[in-house]
Amino acid sequence: MADQRSRRKAQSPGDERGREIDQERGVFMISVAAELAEMHPQTLRMYEARGLIAPKRSPKNTRLYSQADVERLRRIQQMTSDEGLNLAGVETVLELERRLERMRAEMARMRKRAAQMEGRMTEELERLRKSIGGELVPYGAYEPKNMRGSTKIPIRRARG
Questions:
Q1: N or C: which end of the chain has fewer CB within 10 A?
Q2: CA neighbor of 47 nearest in space, from 94, 87, 89, 99
Q3: Tell me: the pLDDT tens digits for 29-85?
Q4: Using CA atoms, how far apart are residues 53 and 46, in angstroms rounded to an integer?
């Protein structure tokens, strides 16, 4: 699911096929990422130290930021400047969003599993109906209407 969101089709004029662009691939050095996010490079280093952002590293240990990282930086900036959150609040919001996404994925898996189980139960019931034929009668089908719920059975209690 996250992989589907991290890849987008891009077509250049005259290119009918389109090609995949990986939004998670680290391509921007810190100065470029800072400029794209309209932040100072030191702010990016501080966010990394706090765990708000985790850029990839090159073989020479240079920070490489992806397009998704830049979008996350912009989102952090929006929360701090426009919405008035401090970094602790931003951390909490991002953690809650991460947990919510995990729960949504778990719910989707559970719904899929429930649908599979319901399908198997339906198939098994149909198989049983065919094997039993007319012998299967719903509970209460032959109970007289005037007796439903109105039948009283006297209870005798032993005295002793």
A1: C
A2: 87
A3: 899 999 999 999 999 999 999 999 999 998 998 899 999 999 999 999 999 999 999
A4: 9
- In 3D space, the residue among 113, 17, 23 whose CA is nearest the CA of residue 66 turns out to be 23
Phi, psi of 31 (to 5 degrees): -65, -40
Tokens at 142, concatenated: 């032959």
Contact of 91 with 51, CB cutoff 8 Å: yes
Q: Could you tell me which of 66, 48, 81 has the C-alpha nearest to residue 2?
A: 66
| Residues in CB range of 55: below 8 A, 6 or more apart | 26, 30, 33, 44, 48, 63, 64, 65, 66, 69
